[in-house]
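Q: Predict the assembly, please.
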Amino acid sequence: MKIAVLIKQVPDTEEGRHLTSDGRADRDASDRVIDEITERALEAALKQKDADKSVEITVVTMGPAAANEALRKALSMGADKAVHVQDDALAGSDALATARALAQALSGLQADLIVAGNESTDGRGGVVPAMIAELLNLPFLGPLGTLEVSGGIVRGSRADASGTTALRASTPAVISVAEAMGEARFPKFKGILAAKRKPVAVQGAAELGLGAADHAAGNLVLASAARPARTAGVKIIDEGQAAQELAAYLAAEKLI
Amino acid sequence: MALAERVLDPADLINFDALLTSEELALRDSVRGFVNENIKPNIARWYEDAVFPLEIVPEMAKLGLLGMHLDGYGCAGRSAVEYGLAGAELEAGDSGLRTFVSVQGSLAMSAIYKHGSEEQKQEWLPQMAAGEAIGCFGLTEPTAGSDPSSMKTFARRDGDDWVLNGSKRWIGLANVAKVAVIWAQTDEGIRGFVVPTSTPGYKATPIEPKLSMRASIQCEIELVDVRLPGSAVLPEVKGLKGPFSCLNEARYGIIWGSMGAARDAFEVALKYSQERLQFDKPLAGYQLTQQKLVDMALEINKGFLLALHIGRQKDAGTLDLHQISVGKLNNCREAIEICREARTILGGNGITLDYSPLRHANNLESVRTYEGTDEVHTLILGNKLTGVPAFR
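A: Predicted assembly structure:
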């Protein structure tokens, strides 16, 4: 079985997030890390490989040259090879343009299963995996908290507010994983060494057959505003009347 | 991962990381992640309850930490520098956890690796690398510490067998170990023995209570007519150079580990000083605090440079043994000072288990004592400088 896992490099959420003047994430303002949810997506694929050594995992990312570091980490965790979609023409791609480029790269891999995180910690759009499924004309299941693949069938469960839904599709299919899928493993020392020798294929827009119309962003960020600073709240000191004051406050705020 | 995955160390004033390869950085990040997720959230509880978390052993093995600088037999085969980097990260968690990795890899496994028969290696090293068997290393005795040549434990030849009698003290993990490397006097000088701890006559009792290394176990071992087959002796070495060759490995790890503890104490103190307000400004804004922080950071930077220099020479095969004493003496001495200074920045809160510096400082009392005390390393260097051995 061949599994493709979508990896994204994002600004570290441990630090403050900043936008550039044209509304893009400022990648230089903080450390770049592999997005944790995509690590979990890789973990889901690696579990399949743990059970069946013949599973081949290709990690795929789209991003600037530095995104290579995220791929190397994924390879050190146990992926077999990597594809890096990298082209200055693709900078500033929105979700749809990103999905088009990734779908092109994925279409060459003949993967039985394409695994992605349900939403990135930077953009948080959560739409790219479903867009890729649509572009490749494949079933989409997500976000999944469990995953089982056998006999050409992929199964998983999706949790929502009222319960869980069991989903099933035949492969090939695209899935996205939720945080519940479980924590990713640490790269083992042998894996770190082996990662150096694993192949990383770099593909540009032209090689993927993408024209200007494909990677033109369909939407544009015109302005962004920082969240207003937090202001001090109302302090109620209990001298026997706190309950009444609290109730009055909640009523005044139309919260009750 | 390399550069981008890393949050720069606040203590690093010299771009130390530029001296490391991307593989070395990746390995360090992997261990750092492991420590942040598996050790730091639990260490206060382990320390207070005085437990060594046995459940963490297979996790460490999975990463490749056990016997990581040995080659083959299921070991990771990494360099001395990489072993050191891992040791520093582990000790940023707790000295007790780094000590376990050190006892397992540098002492017990390396004794078998360097001096054992092929059968001994095949039997023990793979299961020790996998964390299925814990090893311990019995050299020190109740009355033989810095002078191990005065050891009283004796192995008597009885036909093909060996019969061991005596006692050992301050032996890490001896009560949970599956195998013990025991050094004993024989009629032909000091020899090493591979002793399965299930052998009748072997008894290990933890030494309690302790004010240092609480998340680790040190034991007293009693050996009463422990009968071993002829094949139990380590065939390749006679005399004190056997245990000393292992101690040098462990001492090397301490050069790095002690600085890991110091770095963690520094980071905790720095963060606290930036958040704690007194007289309406953060402690970090006071000149007295800045002096402390700068002094600490300078020694951390120098300590890591020294560790790396010694590690690079070890990897190149050009290391002189007295240099290990330079590193062990200096870095332990500075690390304990840094941790104590960090505690002063934390004020009263610094004496609780909520903050690491005093725990590290207490641990380092053991670290500066084992594998050669400050005094022993001073005399080794005194001998080197003057040509006169002062300990004989």
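Chain B has twelve helices and eleven strands. Residues 252 and 324 of chain B are 6 Å apart (CA to CA).
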